[in-house]
Specification:
The complex is a heterodimer of chains A (151) and B (412).
Chain A (H helix, E strand, L loop, with lengths): L7 H8 L11 E7 L4 E10 L2 E10 L2 H14 L4 H15 L6 H4 L15 H15 L17
Antiparallel strand pairs in A: 1-2, 2-3
Helix pairs in contact in A: 1-2, 2-5, 3-5
Chain B lengths: L7 H7 L6 E2 L2 E2 L1 E2 L10 H14 L9 H21 L7 E4 L2 H13 L8 E5 L8 H10 L2 E5 L12 H4 L4 E7 L11 H10 L3 E5 L11 H4 L3 E5 L10 E5 L1 H6 L10 E4 L4 E3 L13 H17 L1 H21 L3 E3 L9 E6 L4 H10 L2 E2 L1 E3 L4 H7 L4 E5 L6 H17 L5
Parallel strand pairs in B: 3-15, 5-6, 5-7, 7-8, 8-9
Antiparallel strand pairs in B: 1-2, 4-10, 9-10, 11-12, 13-14, 14-17, 16-17
Helix pairs in contact in B: 2-10, 3-10, 11-14, 12-14
Classes of the chains: A alpha+beta (151), B alpha/beta (412).
Bound molecules: pyridoxal-5'-phosphate (PLP).
Chain lengths: 151, 412
């Protein structure tokens, strides 16, 4: 049953996360889920409309940390508009819709999380932080799926 | 083998939920510290009330209301007896342990505290017995002071006289921590509180119904607990108080039932305990709790404690044998909760995988964030034991934790 959730690629990102660190002089945002202790400091560099670097310092469960690792990989080199499309596709996936593999790539491994409502906030922590930084949320894909108490 | 193990067939019959499958596995319920399961006699008492005696209490002159009042007030008698309280008036029904603590904080402490006064808590308190006091301190200018823990997770009693001294007006401590599981020596704390003229509240949410509790022997001024952690219904708590304390307190909420006479400008309060029970009380819930007291007494509280303690201590030993698994708190003298960490795996991941194995545990800070800060970890997974568990549940827990380590390749 947890095979859906803990796919090898997620555990791989948890053990060896990409983009751990801080972009000096970049845009920064902190976010946390106080009740479970998931925490992140997300930082990125914007060259015009393009993200040239994205890094995170995080603490938390495998889902939150793997999601951050995959997200920072996915958004590096993308424009804000491109990132917005991925963000919306990610949210749709966590609402249980079939994932858009073209847009989401490896992140489709997080589709299984949609079956575990208590764990959805873990998966969205990184994306919600990015959405705050880049003002990605235009209200087109429902409420923040992580807007529920957790833990 | 404890006496209760031999009764397991009966327990299963009384708790049909124990026969449930979860994710295709037989359920192992290890979350009684959050809320215990409900036995059939308690459900039957609720059904009987709703089907045969359903009416409001204290208000109607009709037959059903008289029956409901008898059942409800009979529950107060039963709970007084369960706690060895001298008088029924000492039992105040509340919404839960949390509201019982808040009632004492607001109705006893708030009018009596000021700058220079101190409220003493211990480092292992549940947020219910911590935030309520932070609020009163903010309202009155009083300060908090903490009884520290030793490295093993016991209260450091060598600090007792330093922490509880003349400036202390209220001491509020847990009988059993919902994380560390140890049975705390509250009698020593009550004695020290009384020595300096402070009142003492015992948060007995994890102890009443889990072991024999005699409020007179404890000596505390107030004892609080929740029905839903002792096989009773949700939505009900109890405040036991010494009569002179309760009588000296002003009511916190106004409304029906708590008054004798209401005028345009002024009213006079009803006597204890009614002046604290404004509005329609949790009638069915109190009747259900009475059935829970009968049920627990029939099995025997000493037997339940012996059974729970044996399982708890067996779980501590078995978990600590697994590489990378660490159990918080003392090894011995534990009744119920076992909080633990698995190296390299976040507690939420532990709980999710355990759930997949049919083993229900809780993960997080268990409403004890300062305690987790003290332990130096943000969160733990917690298995908790009660009369609804048996020895094989410890084996299932250990096997499931081994599965966690397999899924995560025992990451370091
Ligand atoms: C030690 C302790 N105190 C207080 C409470 C609060 O109980 P309730 O949430 O039923 O009001 C709990 C329950 O989690 C507890 O474990």
């Amino acid at each position: 049953m947890f095979a859906d959730l803990y796919q090898a690629i997620i555990l791989e990102h948890y053990r060896n996360p990409s983009n751990v660190g801080l972009v000096e002089d970049g845009l920064q945002a902190r976010n946390s889920h106080p009740s479970c202790g998931d925490k992140v400091l997300l930082s990125l560099r914007l060259d015009g409309q393009r993200i040239s670097e994205a890094k995170f310092l995080g603490e938390g469960c495998s889902i939150s940390q793997a999601s951050l690792s995959m997200m920072t990989e996915a958004v590096t080199g993308q424009t804000v508009d491109e990132v917005k499309a991925v963000y919306q596709a990610f949210r749709r996936m966590l609402y249980g819709e079939e994932p858009n593999e073209e847009l989401l790539g490896d992140m489709v491994a997080l589709h299984g999380v949609s079956k575990f409502p208590a764990r959805v906030p873990c998966a969205t922590l990184g994306w919600e932080t990015l959405a705050l930084l880049l003002q990605l949320d235009d209200g087109s894909v429902g409420d923040d799926p992580s807007d529920q108490p957790c833990g | 083998m404890s006496a209760l193990s031999e009764l397991y067939e009966r327990i299963v019959a009384d708790f049909p939920i124990l026969q449930r499958q979860v994710h295709g596995r037989p359920l192992v319920y290890l979350d009684s510290a959050a809320s215990s399961l409900t036995p059939r006699p308690v459900v039957a008492a609720l059904v009987d009330f709703y089907e045969q005696h359903r009416a409001n209490v204290h208000r109607g002159l009709h037959q059903l209301s008289a029956e409901a009042t008898d059942l409800f007030e009979g529950s107060r008698d039963r709970i007084a007896r369960f706690l060895h309280a001298p008088r029924r008036e000492q039992i105040v029904f509340t919404r839960g342990c949390t509201s019982a603590i808040n009632l004492v904080a607001q109705a006893w402490a708030r009018p009596r505290l000021g700058p220079g006064d101190v409220v003493v808590l211990s480092e292992l308190e549940h947020h219910a017995n911590l935030v309520s006091w932070q609020i009163v301190c903010r309202q009155t200018g009083a300060k908090l002071r903490y009884l520290p823990l030793t490295a093993e997770g016991h209260w450091d009693l060598t600090e007792l006289a330093r922490v509880i001294r003349d400036d202390v007006k209220v001491v509020a401590v847990a009988h059993i921590s919902n994380v560390l599981g140890g049975l705390n020596p509250v009698e020593a704390v009550v004695a020290q509180a009384h020595r300096v003229g402070a009142v003492c509240l015992v948060d007995a949410a994890q102890s009443v119904g889990h072991l024999p509790v005699d409020v007179q022997a404890l000596g505390a001024d107030f004892v609080c607990f929740s029905s839903h952690k002792m096989c009773g219904p949700t939505g009900l708590g109890v405040l036991y108080g010494k009569l002179e304390r309760l009588e000296a307190m002003e009511p916190l909420e106004g409304g029906g039932d708590m008054i004798v006479h209401v005028d345009w400008e002024e009213s006079t309060w009803n006597q204890v305990p009614y002046k604290f029970e404004a509005g329609t009380p949790p009638i069915a819930e109190a009747i259900g709790l009475r059935a829970a007291c009968d049920y627990l007494d029939e099995l025997g509280l000493a037997t339940i404690r012996e059974h729970t303690q044996a399982l708890t201590e067996a779980a501590v030993l078995a978990l600590e044998e697994l590489p990378g698994v660490k159990v918080m708190g003392p090894k011995q003298g534990r009744v119920g909760p076992v909080a633990f960490t698995v190296e390299g795996v976040h507690p939420h991941d532990v709980a999710t995988i355990l759930d997949g194995e049919g083993v229900a545990v809780r993960a997080g800070h268990h409403c004890a964030q300062p305690l987790h800060a003290r332990l130096g970890i943000p969160a733990t997974a917690r298995a908790s034991f009660y009369l609804t568990n048996r020895a094989s549940d410890v084996d299932r827990l250990v096997a499931a934790v081994t599965t966690v380590q397999k899924v995560f390749g025992h990451v370091r």
